Amino acid sequence: xxxxxxxxxxxxxxxxxxxxxxxxxxxxxxxxxxxxxxxxxxxxxxxxxxxxxxxxxxxxxxxxxxxxxxxxxxxxxxxxxxxxxxxxxxxxxxxxxxxxxxxxxxxxxxxxxxxxxxxxxxxxxxxxxxxxx
Length: 133
Known about the structure:
33% of the residues lie in helices and 20% in strands. The chain is of the alpha+beta class. The chain has one domain. It has a five-stranded antiparallel beta sheet. A hairpin with a 6-residue loop joins strand 1 (31-34) and strand 2. The longest helix has 16 residues, at 6-21. The protein is globular. Residues 128-133 have low confidence and may be disordered.
C-alpha cells in the first residue's frame, strides 16, 4: 500500500512547481501523516521532482514544529512499536495556509494542538469531527 496515492502526489508536485514560480505561494497542506501512539506528525504541501522530498510542517513531538523538507521514503520506512507504521489521515482537509498552521503549531507546541485550535477558530476550514470550540 502506498502511503500517498498518485492523485495526491500529482497535486503535491503541482504545488512544488507553483512554489518555485512564486515566493508568495502559501497553500494549505494537502496531506497529513502521523505516527500512531507517537506524537510525530507531518503536514505536506509539496512533493519535489525526485518523488521523495516533501516540503511542509514537521512535528517530531519535541515541542518545536518546523517548516522544512523531509523524505517520504524515510517516513514510510519507519517501524513503530507493535508493528505499526506511519499513516495518512484520509479525512484530513484544510483551507488554512501552511504559514498559519506553522504559526499556530509553534504557539501551541504541536501540530495536533494546532489542529484543535484552528478548528475552534475556523470551524469551516477544517474537516468535520474536530472540536468546534
